[in-house]
Amino acid sequence: MRIMEELSVMEKLEILTDAAKYDVACTSSGTDRAGDGSGIGNCVKAGLCHSFAADGRCISLLKILFTNECIFDCKYCLNRRSNDVPRTSFTPEEVCELTIEFYRRNYIEGLFLSSGVLHSPDYTMELIYSALYKLRYEKRFQGYIHVKAIPGASLELVRRVGYLADRMSVNLEFATAEGLKKLAPHKTRKNILAPMRMVQNGVTQNRYEIQSYRGAPRFVPAGQSTQMIIGATPETDYEILHVAESLYKKFDLKRVFYSAFVHLNDDRELPARTGEGPPLLREHRLYQADWLLRYYHFEASEILSEKEPNFNVLFDPKCNWALRHLEQFPVEVNRAGYEMLLRVPGLGYRSAQRIVRARRFGMLDFADLKKMGVVLKRAMYFLTCNGRMMYPTKLEEDYIARNLLNTGQKLPEGADGMTYRQMSLFDDVRFGGGFHEENLCVQG
Amino acid sequence: MKRIYVCRDEVTGLLSALYDAWRGVVVDGVPECGIRFRGCIEQELFCEYTEVEESEKKARAVERLILRNLGWYAYKLIYQAALSTDALKGDAILGAMLEARKIPDSRRIMDHLGNAQVEKVFELSRNVGDEVHRWLQFLRFGELENGIMFSRFEPKNRVLTCVAPHFADRFCLENWMIYDETHQEYVVHEAGKQWVLVTGEELNEELAGRYSDGERMFRELWHRFTDSIAIEERRNPGCQMGHLPLWYRKNMVEFLSV
Ligand code: SF4
Predict the structure, then answer these.
(1) Which is the most buried residue in A19, A27, A142, B82, by most CB within 10 A?
(2) Which residues of B touch A372 (CB under 8 A)?
(3) Which of A361, A364, A370, A439 to mutate to test the interface with B (most CBs of B within 10 A)?
């Protein structure tokens, strides 16, 4: 192992940022906390992105590893012990200085601190604890902190760190235990789920403490998140989404992040390189479906099924659902319940809320919807106002599918002249990389 | 004949004009009133123009009127709309206030989006709100030689007073200053005190250009960080541009050469 002595902070920052960048974090769905006047910082629940990197992903936190030394050997990871890469560690003091100096220039919303496993999980967790303690109590930093729990660390240590952080996460890594065993031989499902459960219980208990006495310290107020790597193991989208759903339901997770697998190591346990790049469209569809779970009252089993286990390339999950359930459309704008409005392709929850509020003042027609800023490009095939559609439209799969495609979704070669049933067979598994879309940001 | 009230394009001016126009319609029964800003008036035929006598008193009275009858939510939207660059924002706000008299629950006025003027106030306010949000994200501070954290930006709408409270809370123990180059005004915040808005004073460019010794290093560190954090295999400048249009980047450290 090459441990670099005497690196400058500049060099360390480069190495430890490069090593941390595959982890996804986002300050949204976070927590609101005003400053108490004694230090620096506050938190904004909606989250703030402070910049965007050349890959289009938002930058909101100083995302670094404490150290990239690691005794584990996860096949997909740059820092695995079998890789020959320069190794270095920050000191707690350096982490504090970078965080504070970036923060007061409004470069960042806070710190995202992860780490390789140095000596042992407990040893590493102690280091993280001392850096965060210094930041919170000596530097009086009240901004956002997201910290990783190291699988295998003692739960007591995880608990102590939880009182210093806003959000914690333990990466599930893969939807199935087999995937984990194969690609992360030093991690176990048990080591991952135990801290997750501990944090969940801690948050519940803390809620009670806060109610009982004022000034009780807050435990992980922004909740916990996790991450799964997409495309390194053979799980289907259905399996992944299903796992995400149960994490939301059974572990009260705030967010599940999906990270398209990037080929960093050559290893026979990893899928062969295809030259197609990371499966970005698949990742994107997972985020769309995840939105449907969290904000649109969908169940995973409505979006995908064992029979149809992968996302469609051409249609986003909501469109796809609507095309398969045309019997529930068209929906009458002036009467439909909020939950049904949410299911109309092209209608976001903000538009749906606005419609529900505005229709109290009288009947709405399409012109009113436009005035209210509701985008009808796709929604018009599924809506009526006072019993009328915007244009004479056939409520027929192929017809609507074709028109939806004309509104900008690109057609893969050979899809011309197909019926919807044929087009729906284009699932993401058969269309790897080469996908770019404007909105890959995972906010929300 | 339509009566048009002419005022300065800032909050007190606009609120005073609203005061006069409201009285024009409600008390004097003028059938149609409008509000225009000095310096950007397109003369219309068959209109009578009157200069507004601006005062804090009128402004406060209108604020009270709005708060009492339309509630806090509408007040917030109207205040934001008043900061917009739109030349006809006065008409929209007046229109919304008058419309509120016709509905059973005037506090619901901002839900009445079927009305064009209400919808416009909503739209303007959303536009201003979006810009505020963007600047909370993209504003950058630099440490000057004298220790003051200094920031400059060129907003489209007059958002400085909406941006300031966020930083006053966040950086309560810092001395900082934000300069709005478009409208040439600043907010100054002294450690531990309330922020103040300063208008009509020129920026001391010489002082504002002298950065502290540490400043250069942290800019470079930030540069390195933003370069390293991007995943090469996912490179996507189009997406980056969509989220962060060029005009926001002018004072953003990571897009300037060190
Ligand atoms: S534990 Fe695994 S994923 Fe984490 S740094 Fe070590 S090798 Fe990488």
Answers:
(1) A27
(2) 113-114, 119
(3) A361
Q: What is the full per-residue pLDDT of chain A (444 aa) written as tens digits?
A: 566 667 899 999 999 999 999 888 877 777 888 988 889 999 998 888 899 888 888 899 999 999 999 999 999 999 999 999 999 999 999 999 999 999 999 999 999 999 999 999 999 999 999 999 999 999 999 999 999 999 999 999 999 999 999 999 999 999 999 999 999 999 999 999 999 999 999 999 999 998 888 888 899 999 999 999 999 999 999 999 999 999 999 999 999 999 999 999 888 888 888 878 888 889 999 999 999 999 999 999 999 999 889 998 888 899 999 999 999 999 999 999 999 999 999 898 889 999 999 898 889 999 989 888 888 988 999 999 999 998 887 778 888 888 887 765 555 555 556 676 666 655 555 444 444 333 333 333
Residue A217's nearest CA partner among A429, A33, A21, A28 is A33
Report the run of H or E that residue A268 belongs to, with start and end: none
What span, in angstroms and rounded, lies between the C-alpha atoms of A48 and B158?
21
Q: Strands (DSSP E) along B28-103, which ranges?
A: 33-37, 47-51
Name chain A contacts of B114, Cβ cutoff 8 Å: 358, 361-362, 364, 368, 371-372
Closest CA to A364 of A400, A342, A382, A388: A388
Cα-to-centroid distance, A16 and ligand 1 (Å)? 13
Q: For chain B, give every domain's residue range.
A: 2-131, 139-255
Residue B84, amino acid: S
Alpha helices by DSSP H, listed for A296-438, are 300-303, 317-324, 338-342, 349-358, 366-371, 397-406, 420-423
Judge: B233–A262 Cβ closer than 8 Å, yes or no.
yes
Tally of CB atoms within 10 A around A198: 18
Residue bearing tokens 């051409």 = A314
**Token representation of residue A186:** 């030093």
Window B:101-120, CB contacts with A under 8 Å: 103, 108, 111-114, 116, 119
CB count in 10 Å sphere of residue A17: 20
Sequence spans of domains, chain A:
9-227+237-256, 325-405
ipTM of the complex: 0.91
Q: What is the pTM of this model?
A: 0.89
Contact between A417 and A226 under an 8 Å Cβ cutoff? The reply is no
A192 lines ligand 1 (CB under 6 A): no
Q: Following DSSP, what letter does each residue of B133-153 receive, concatenated?
A: HHHHHH---EEBTTS-EEEEE
Q: How many CB atoms lie within 10 A of CB A156?
A: 11
